[in-house]
Write a structure and sequence with these properties.
alpha/beta, 2-enoyl-CoA Hydratase, Chain A, domain 1, 8 helices, 8 strands
Length: about 200
Amino acid sequence: MSKDADDDKLDVAPFFDYGIDIHTKTMYLGDDEGSDDDDDEGLSIRVASRAIKGLHVLDHLENPDPITIIVNTAGGEEMQCLAIYDAIKECTHQTFIKVLGQCLSGGVWILQAASKRLLSANSRLMIHAGTWGLSEDHPAIVKTWVKQYEKDEELSENILLERIWEKQPDFTRDQLREMLRFDTIFTPQEAIDLGLADEII
C-alpha cells in the first residue's frame, strides 16, 4: 500500500477531539480549549476526566512502548492536577512527559509523576504556592477548608521534594518554601539542575 493510501486512512479525529493517539501511544494534556467559562480554564475537571480516560486506554494497549504525554499548560485546579498525577503514577507502562511551551503551577506536580521528564529547549516551568479560592460561608466551613488547604500545601511540597531529593539530597523544605512564596520561573536547564526534570529534548 502506498504512503498516500495510508494517509487517506489516517484518522486524526481522536487526537484532535480527545487528545489521544493509540497508534503512537501519545496523549496531549493542555488547558481546556473548548470552555467559554472563565472559571473552567486550565486543567479543569473536564480536562482531568479526559486525561484519566485517555491514560486508561493507552495503558491497556498490548503495545509495551512507553506512553508519551505532551504537556503545555498554565496549571489549573489543585484537585484535578493531583487526579492526573495519580493516574500517571498508576500506569503500568512507563510514562514520558514532553513539555512544549509552558508547564506552570500544578502542571509541575503532574510532570513529577513521569518515568522520564523531558523539556523542549524553549519551554519554561513555574512553581508557586497558588491561590486559595475561599468564598463567603459559615466560619466553621471556612476553617475546615483552610485546614485542608494547609495539608494540601504540604502534599504539593512532598511531590516536588521527592524528585528534587533524587538529585539534591541536602535541599531543604525551607528552601522550597522560599521558592513557592511567589512565582519562581525556571529555564529547562535550571529545572534539570534542581531536579524537576531530566533532559532537554
